[in-house]
């Protein structure tokens, strides 16, 4: 069907620029497709509690947490937040403890060091192993106290005769625990601080990669992923990003006092890619479903994803007549070829029914998907099919259906991809992809009440920023 032996076209300089954040883009591309989105997102939330996580975790586990810190220190996104954390913990001591003079021998603070356990920490303030035992066994929750974090501070309140009266420790900006002596034993309390949520604005111009520019604009890793995800149906972040592309975001900032302790959702965004501007507005409908729409209420989600293979090079485009590399005859090429290493996953372009998963002459191992009554996609030369994908079954958009190979009439590993509308082959690259349902008519007015002020705010923020830059 196709060839990959042709010399690859020289990439324009911008391509190289766009390719420079490959590691970042790799993880990014994973998020463009819904089926993997949740999984990857969770990982990030667990790595960094500061990053807009609604969930507040229990007392950090020493072992797990040291791993977390390792990962965090590798991530340029986490460094600043991590160090700010420590500072903050020192500044804001619990009022009742801070109110008493530091010299008061009944108040003692221990910072957890490497290898410390609750026993070693307790012994540093003269408390016995028996006390540790009593504390841990006082309640189920109190057991969590034994999981310590390096750098965590434990503030002890001791009685005249050196017995434990109370203990307080801040676990994060959002969570602290308190233990108080009672007649019956110890009372364990966990306090969660609810941060204030404010809307924040960020703007950036891309000159190397989205990730670098987003970071410079002050966006967290998670927000950057969200941004890429929102526009993932319109912009191919692996191939389409150019120097000078621009983005604007209004997002939720979670603050305690003056300090940002996390971020929430992107409320609206604008992305200008190669001169074309895309808008996005987050909207929760009356049923509680959350989705992003463009400023006019059209769904961001498309019935088809743009490219069934990530990080592939287009080695041959759709044409009505070209010389076939093997047959050496002028032949139409009714699809697009994506060259990628053998074994690269291939994704279903949309939800659909598998009408073929098997061999098909010169196409080799082929999958044909039927999407509704109008659309059909075909994937040829596959090395093999993904588990569970078989004729008669169904697949979800973004689901891996098979792997790049060179079966059938093919000169190298690539995917031959065809797109049919009502039985006619069309160029998938020029095809205007059909969109999912727009905002329901009865919700349109309510949606516009959300959308208009957000768009106006971005206009205003940008104007202010440009005015400031001019000075
Ligand atoms: Zn082909």
UniProtKB/TrEMBL annotation:
It is found in: Cell envelope. Its cofactor is Zn(2+). Transmembrane segments: none annotated. This is Murein DD-endopeptidase MepM and murein hydrolase activator NlpD, contain LysM domain. Pfam families: Csd3_N2, LysM_OapA, Peptidase_M23. Residues 108-170 form the Opacity-associated protein A LysM-like domain. GO terms for biological process: proteolysis. Residues 332-428 form the M23ase beta-sheet core domain. PANTHER family: CELL DIVISION PROTEIN YTFB, PEPTIDASE-RELATED. It comes from the Bacteria. Keywords: Hydrolase, Metal-binding, Metalloprotease, Protease, Zinc. One of its GO terms (cellular component) is cell envelope.
